[in-house]
Description:
Elements: E1 8-17, E2 20-30, E3 35-39, H1 46-53, E4 61-66, E5 69-70, H2 76-83, E6 86-89, H3 101-106, H4 115-123, H5 129-137, H6 153-167, E7 171-175, H7 183-191, E8 201-205, H8 209-215, E9 218-223, E10 226-232, H9 238-245
Parallel strand pairs: 3-8, 3-9, 6-7, 7-8
Antiparallel strand pairs: 1-2, 1-4, 4-5, 9-10
Helix pairs in contact: 5-6
Amino acid sequence: MTASPPVIRLRGAGRRFGSHHAVADVDLTVYAGERVAVLGTSGAGKSTLLSMLNGSLSATSGEVEVLGANLANLSPSRLRAIQRRIGTVSQRLDLVNQVRVLHNVNAGRLGRWGSIRALAALAWPRADPTVTEALRRVGLPWAVHERTERLSGGERQRVAIARLLVQEPDLVVADEPVASLDPTRAAGILELLGVPGRPVTVVVSLHQPELARRHCTRAIGLRGGRLVFDLPVEHLDDRVLADLYTLT
């Protein structure tokens, strides 16, 4: 795994909001195919770190390299090109609830399409095999022409995953994608964070350490914006977790 260049490399990376250091002095290297869980209490810096990885927030200190590019040195067009290779699932889901599910799933491919094709997809949406297969994988084959706002919260989460699947990203950054789901549904969603047959790298923030143990290969812990551990999930024991979640 380590023979190829890393997908993610952070060197002393940090993000400050005024005088508050949301993330501070993080060193992190992630290789293709790894599934990394980000653990920590609310306010530990998990969402900020993930936003730095997908380029929606820039670092105020250190370096952030993703998919071979230093994000601080990129032109806006080059940054967008890198972001097209990153699939993001945010806590908000970022769906347009007033349109059909088909539109939201197709949005995962707009970055690869030219302007004319993208406009045509909005005006005359078509459920091609890529879309129908993605919805089948997330258990929503019946919902392709449903208005997104009519779906339950869990169903909308699966629409966001279907959008990710048609995007076919090289890196998936998911911010608490299963926070409101029961354990069975959460496990199903985490299994879908990837593309069959491709070494997709996944970085996902979780509140449930047991899900990290079952669905990830590695776990990092954040406390006060700082990295306090980085270890294989089989070493994620009660002592490590008690230290992470103890307020200091």
